[in-house]
Amino acid sequence: MPQLLPTDVLFFLTLFGLFGLLVYSLGQTHLRRPWQKVFQSTQAMVSLVILIPYLLVAVADSIRLEGALVPQAGEGPVASSEPLSLLDLGLQRLRLSVEKTYSAPLQVELHAREMVRLPDGREIWSTPRLRYGGSHLIDPFKERTSDLFRRAIKGFFKGALVWLMLTVPLLAMVVWWTGDKRRVLLDIALGRSRFPWRAVLLAGLFLAMVVGVLAEWAAVYHVLGTDKVGADVLYQSLKSIRTGILIGTLTTVATLPLSLLLGILAGYFRGWVDDVIQYVYTTLNAIPGVLLIAAAMLVMQASMARHEAAFQSLALRADVRLLALCLILGLTSWTGLCRLLRAETLKLRNLEYVQAAKVLGVSQSRILLRHILPNVFHLVLIAVALDFSSLVLAEAVLSYVNIGVDPSTESWGNMINTARLEMAREPVVWWSLASAFCFMLGLVLPANLLADVLRDAFDPRRVS
Amino acid sequence: MSAYLLRRLLTTVPLLIGINLLTFVLFFVINSPEDMARMHLGQKHVTQEGIAKWTHERGYDLPLFYNGEAEGLEVLTKTIFVEKSLGLFLFRFGHSDAGRDIGADIRQRMGPSLAIAVPSLIVGLLMDISLALLLVFFRLTYLEVWGAALCIMLMSISTLFYIIGGQFLVGKCLQWVPISGYDSGLEAIRFIVLPVLIGTLAGVGSGVRWYRTLFLEEIEQDYVRTARAKGLSEAKVLTVHVLKNAMIPILTGVVVVLPLLFTGSLLTESFFAIPGLGSYTIDAINQQDFAIVRAMVFLGSFLYILGLLLTDLSYMLVDPRVRFQD
Question: What average pLDDT does chain A have?
Answer without folding.
Answer: 87
